[in-house]
Write a structure and sequence with these properties.
11 helices; 2 domains; mainly alpha
Length: 334
């Protein structure tokens, strides 16, 4: 009879350990994901040139990538769905950085953090068992102590463990062995994923340039260091199908007018056009990037086709744009 009772007790403790470890597995998994994402982001900011600066630097590297590919469809993604393109660019760069077969950084980060959290849990188990044993506490008090010791490093809701807090045991020390052993197979099953990046996808309605402030809902106006020829957004000169090669900042410094929905507004007063325009800070300057001059010249026929327009009249492409060297157009001074 005593043997049967002992077996029942062991089975009960094993069930207790399985339930606890199932909850621990989930908590450790989320902690590893969060820590690994932070570790990768920090390392890439310090070592990867595309991410070691601000949003403008990242834009530069995306433009370099597009220039090398020379794929109009990719440019269309970048221009009309910049949030998706940037996320995809970052995802591809992270994959290349982390999944390199010769240097599997992601695997190294995950294994390092897995070992770290495993050690943290084992230490919390050991120390909480010791405290409760000295106080002659029960399983419920041990769960309280254990969850408290995990603290800010890992979120394990104590409320999720109420179903096992009434477990009876005469040997609280035995819990340490059973839980520690049950934790091993649970940790071996963990899989890895990455968190999403929030980006501010707000674009200039005139030229599709993306706001350089990466914080969603940021204070102040939207802005960008470099606007683009408005032909990229398909904007045409009034009464014609001639695409506009001027950029927003040039037009804001001119005497030209915006004609939209029956209203005629001076370009200098662009904020009066509507809410999508009112929240943009477009400074009146006349310089523009050689990059976009090359793009318009190189993809002229594609732009004309997709926007059903022509580069004629006031929208004629300047001759010197046709002479730009692809390898030298990333001159940020324009």
């Amino acid at each position: 009879i005593s043997f049967k009772i002992a077996c029942q007790g062991a089975t009960s403790i094993t069930t207790f350990a399985d339930i606890l470890c199932s909850n621990l597995k989930s908590a450790i998994c989320h902690a590893i994901y969060d820590k690994t994402a932070i570790d990768i982001a920090n390392e890439m900011r310090s070592k990867h040139p595309a991410f070691s600066g601000n949003r403008s630097r990242l834009e530069l590297f995306m433009l370099v990538c597009l220039l090398k590919q020379e794929d109009f469809e990719k440019y269309q993604q970048y221009i009309y769905n910049p949030s998706y393109y940037m996320e995809d660019f970052i995802r591809r760069e992270v994959d290349k950085y982390c999944l390199d077969k010769k240097n599997p950084k992601l695997k190294n980060f995950l294994n390092l953090n897995l070992d770290s959290f495993h050690s943290l849990v084992l230490l919390a188990i050991h120390e909480s068992i010791k405290v409760v044993k000295d106080k002659h506490g029960n399983v419920a008090s041990w769960l309280d102590e254990f969850c408290t010791r995990l603290g800010d490093d890992m979120y394990l809701p104590r409320s999720n463990l109420t179903s096992i807090e009434h477990q009876e045991t005469k040997d609280i020390q035995f819990l340490e062995q059973v839980v520690s052993e049950s934790l091993i197979p649970a940790l071996e099953e963990l899989k890895q994923t990455f968190s999403e990046i929030d980006l501010d996808p707000f674009q200039c309605s005139f030229c599709k340039a993306v706001c350089t402030n990466t914080i969603p809902g940021h204070d102040g106006d939207h802005s960008t260091h470099f606007h683009r020829p408005q032909a990229l957004a398909g904007i045409q000169w009034e009464g014609t199908n001639h695409l506009v090669t001027d950029i927003c900042t040039t037009l804001a410094a001119s005497d030209c007018k915006i004609v939209l929905d029956g209203k005629t507004i001076p370009c200098k007063n662009y904020r009066e056009v509507g809410s999508d325009y009112a929240n943009w800070d477009i400074k009146p300057v006349t310089s523009q990037l050689s990059y976009w001059k090359w793009f318009v010249s190189h993809f002229r026929s594609d732009l004309e086709k997709i926007h059903n327009g022509k580069f004629k009249g006031k929208g004629a492409i300047p001759t010197n744009w046709n002479n730009l060297n692809k390898d030298k157009v990333l001159d940020w001074k324009g």
